[in-house]
């Protein structure tokens, strides 16, 4: 997304997060950085690629059955698409009807699809069987970046080092995770994917995916996707400086991570060693 903070905006966000930390109805994960616990470098193999829609400025990415759901951003061109996992071909596309809305992360939970917006402070709820119109909305006080779920609750990133845990019915914040590594807090957390007690996180404007322990907030591993495009799509020219890695979907059946980026021409299937 187009996420550029001025110092004043960043200070305001820090104040907001600080206030949120004092809520009596939230629980905060451990935040102490363990200097002896350096994140492990996680190696992987590319087991395959499929085409990706280069018109998609990827904000949310999720696998559901044999379909890839993708939420995209940019003003006047935000949409949700459904693509076939075998071919990458987009089968359906649902533009946001309100062109002032900037689409962000998505998550599928209990036959509903949730969609954040960037700075509009609103999120949409859809019936998964009909994404042409929302069935409801909820207010969100911060910026919206990434979203995932653990089968029970939603998790939302806002570009800071905090991941918020939400009740999917009331949308109340019921907990939060402070993400840290051996050096301290880790910010610019973006697209999220929950896998077996860990949250995989794109760190904005980097080639790295962080593996975060959802119980403690500590980064236990990093996946570096540097060089994927130059190796598999050497003729591709990025559309902008923001055409970076952003998009993680988990294939539980085959134990694969599907990863892509904003306006990238390919989706990569990664098998972690």
TrEMBL record:
Gene3D superfamilies in alphabetical order: YVTN repeat-like/Quinoprotein amine dehydrogenase
InterPro entries: QCT, Quino_amine_DH_bsu, WD40/YVTN_repeat-like_dom_sf
Keyword set includes Zinc: no
UniProt keyword terms in alphabetical order: Transferase
Top-level division of the source organism's lineage: Bacteria
PANTHER family with a match to the protein in the record: GLUTAMINYL-PEPTIDE CYCLOTRANSFERASE
Protein name: Glutamine cyclotransferase
Organismal lineage: Bacteria, Pseudomonadati, Bacteroidota, Sphingobacteriia, Sphingobacteriales
């Amino acid at each position: 997304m187009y996420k550029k903070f001025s110092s004043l905006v960043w200070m305001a966000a820090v104040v907001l997060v600080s206030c949120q930390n004092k809520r009596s109805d939230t629980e905060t994960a451990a935040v102490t950085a363990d200097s002896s616990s350096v994140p492990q470098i996680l190696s992987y193999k590319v087991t395959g690629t499929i085409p990706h829609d280069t018109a998609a400025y990827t904000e949310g990415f999720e696998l559901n059955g044999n379909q890839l759901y993708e939420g995209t951003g940019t003003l006047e061109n935000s949409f949700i698409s459904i693509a076939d996992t075998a071919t990458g071909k987009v089968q359906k596309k649902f533009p946001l009807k309100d062109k002032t809305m900037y689409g962000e992360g998505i998550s599928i939970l209990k036959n509903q699809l949730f969609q954040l917006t960037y700075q509009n402070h609103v999120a949409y709820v859809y019936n998964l069987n009909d994404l042409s119109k929302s069935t409801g909305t909820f207010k969100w006080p911060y910026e919206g970046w990434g979203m995932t779920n653990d089968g029970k609750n939603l998790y939302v990133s806002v570009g800071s080092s905090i991941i918020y845990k939400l009740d999917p019915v009331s949308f109340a914040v019921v907990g939060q995770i402070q993400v840290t590594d051996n050096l301290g807090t880790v910010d610019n957390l973006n697209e999220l994917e929950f896998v077996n007690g860990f949250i995989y996180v794109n760190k904005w404007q980097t080639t790295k995916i962080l593996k975060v322990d959802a119980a403690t907030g500590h980064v236990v591993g990093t996946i570096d996707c540097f060089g994927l495009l130059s190796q598999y799509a050497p003729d591709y020219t990025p559309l902008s400086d923001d055409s970076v890695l952003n998009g993680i979907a988990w294939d539980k059946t085959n134990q694969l991570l599907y990863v892509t980026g904003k306006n990238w021409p390919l989706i990569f299937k990664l098998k972690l060693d």
